[in-house]
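User: Let's play a game. I give you a shape written as tokens, and you guess the letters that built it. Ready? Here's round one.
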């Protein structure tokens, strides 16, 4: 406020999630300004787009690297007045940059009573219907668009979700996703602010596993990968051990599942003294060890962004860590649907939250109505009008609703492939199934106008390298390893497993393994790691067409 920030002014930020960033985000909201977070992995050009599109006057930056991105951007950021840096970086020839301590100096010069009065006057002037944040989409099909979240929408999103997942004074969350990610801003930052609970900040994504063990959060919002890595490691260890250990683990999981059934459905559950004794035995023999290695105080986890293998969900549920899948978009101010205790159907995104209406259009598109809708895209009334029609949000996602009201997501409308025989196929659905293999990292499916489907694949370096070492496969580097016939045979087997779960027309007939991942640096994926299909199609056209040559 001492810098002249008024209500409605935009303030951007670019940093990994850390306490200082959380303080600034909260201060921006309390001042009535609008927060416009930027992914810390963005290029200078992408940073400039968010700053210019939002019209940000101020940017909070983590360190020298992020400051230099903004300053070196090819597009000029004409409205930018100050960059406030968290870590020590004070270039002598750059008056644009000040430290966080320097930011506080003007406020310290104001007498405390006057300062407090100014703060409360501004805070009380902030209205529920006013915009709190502009969250930019990942930009899979073009420049990212800014979605406007309101104060009321963010708060209701948290409170509606909390009806099914009560929060207690002893609860503790953990933040590790970027603040520019809608899940982190809404369900990480504002969740703990609204509930008034302790929040832990992970040192980094790579340190997350150790940080969870050290700080013992009681719940977790995460993409599936966190649990997939744990599950793959535990499964691999069991496979290497004797048969009796695998059978013992299966028996223990059965007892855990029965216990969880009793917890989820206490009225109809049959839970005898003998059942309790068997569960306690299973807990000591196996289940406790899993919890100690994953997070011994975790009560539940919310997951989204990609489907999770059913066997993984059953495994962790049996261990006392139920994972509840949900469905959310950047264009909605909270979860649209969520599985919950007592209403959890594996393979679906759950049922709509209270006050949200969902229907499936004739072409399969998911339409949403209710408080969940945002006020649209910032500075983009034309595109806003395209997705909001007759009171409904046209999500662009394809899905189904079963007889019990559970929603299943099947793909993206704009990404549908039409084969030469006229069949409509969702590549995203097949890609997600392929990525359930521990050896496959990324997958892009092709087949528009063709007689069969093909795929470009990148591999999980850690898992494939470990496989090679166990099989004594010699290689010079990872690129060399991806060309070994043993690895090609391994991936062929994984694809055959996936094909068994698909209709014949959806089967992958040919594939090509790339020796490096699709990356944000090469503009092949978004900051949220979504594939930019048009870029990949253009860049690897020769490799794709080679799979269709006779």
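Assistant: Ready! My guess for every position:
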């Amino acid at each position: 406020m001492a810098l002249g920030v008024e209500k409605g002014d935009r303030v951007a930020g670019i940093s990994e999630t850390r306490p200082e960033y959380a303080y600034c985000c909260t201060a921006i909201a309390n001042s009535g300004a609008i927060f416009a977070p930027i992914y810390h992995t963005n290029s200078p050009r992408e940073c400039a787009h968010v700053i210019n599109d939002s019209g940000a006057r101020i940017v909070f930056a983590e360190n020298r690297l992020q400051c230099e991105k903004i300053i070196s951007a090819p597009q000029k950021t004409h409205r930018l007045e100050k960059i406030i840096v968290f870590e020590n970086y004070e270039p002598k020839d750059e008056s644009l940059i000040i430290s966080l301590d320097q930011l506080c100096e003007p406020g310290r010069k104001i007498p405390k009573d006057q300062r407090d009065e100014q703060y409360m006057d501004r805070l009380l002037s902030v209205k529920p219907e006013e915009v709190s944040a502009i969250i930019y989409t990942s930009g899979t099909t073009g420049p990212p668009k800014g979605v406007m979240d309101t104060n009321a929408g963010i708060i209701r999103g948290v409170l509606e979700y909390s009806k099914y997942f009560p929060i207690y004074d002893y609860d503790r969350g953990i933040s590790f996703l970027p603040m520019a990610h809608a899940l982190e801003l809404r369900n990480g930052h504002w969740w703990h602010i609204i509930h008034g609970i302790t929040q832990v900040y992970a040192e980094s994504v790579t340190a997350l596993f150790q940080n969870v063990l050290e700080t013992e959060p009681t719940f977790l919002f995460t993409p599936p990968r966190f649990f997939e890595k744990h599950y793959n490691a535990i499964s691999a260890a069991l496979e290497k051990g004797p048969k009796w250990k695998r059978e013992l683990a299966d028996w223990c999981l059965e007892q855990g599942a029965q216990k969880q059934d009793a917890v989820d459905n206490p009225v109809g559950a049959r839970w005898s003294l003998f059942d309790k004794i068997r569960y306690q035995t299973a807990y000591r023999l196996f289940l406790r060890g899993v919890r100690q290695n994953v997070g011994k105080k975790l009560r539940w986890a919310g997951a989204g962004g990609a489907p999770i293998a059913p066997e993984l969900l059953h495994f962790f549920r049996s261990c006392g860590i139920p994972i509840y899948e949900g469905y959310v978009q950047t264009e909605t101010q909270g979860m649209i649907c969520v599985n919950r205790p007592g209403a959890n159907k594996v393979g679906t995104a759950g049922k709509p939250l209270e006050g949200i209406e969902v229907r499936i259009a004739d072409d399969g598109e998911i339409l949403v109505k209710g408080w969940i809708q945002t006020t649209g895209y910032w500075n983009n009334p034309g595109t806003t009008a395209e997705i909001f029609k007759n009171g409904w949000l046209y999500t662009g996602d394809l899905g189904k609703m079963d007889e019990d009201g559970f929603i299943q997501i099947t793909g993206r409308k704009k990404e549908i492939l039409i084969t030469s025989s006229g069949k409509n196929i969702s590549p995203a659905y097949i890609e997600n199934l392929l990525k359930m293999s521990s050896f496959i990292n990324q997958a892009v499916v092709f087949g528009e106008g063709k007689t069969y489907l093909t795929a470009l694949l990148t591999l999980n370096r850690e898992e494939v390298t470990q496989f090679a070492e166990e099989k004594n496969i010699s290689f010079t580097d990872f690129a060399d390893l991806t060309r070994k016939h043993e690895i090609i045979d391994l991936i062929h087997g994984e694809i055959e497993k996936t094909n068994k779960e698909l209709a014949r027309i959806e089967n992958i007939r040919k594939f090509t393994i790339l020796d490096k991942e699709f990356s944000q640096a090469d503009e092949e994926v978004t900051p949220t790691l979504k594939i930019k299909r048009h870029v990949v199609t253009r860049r690897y056209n020769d490799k794709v067409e080679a799979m269709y040559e006779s």
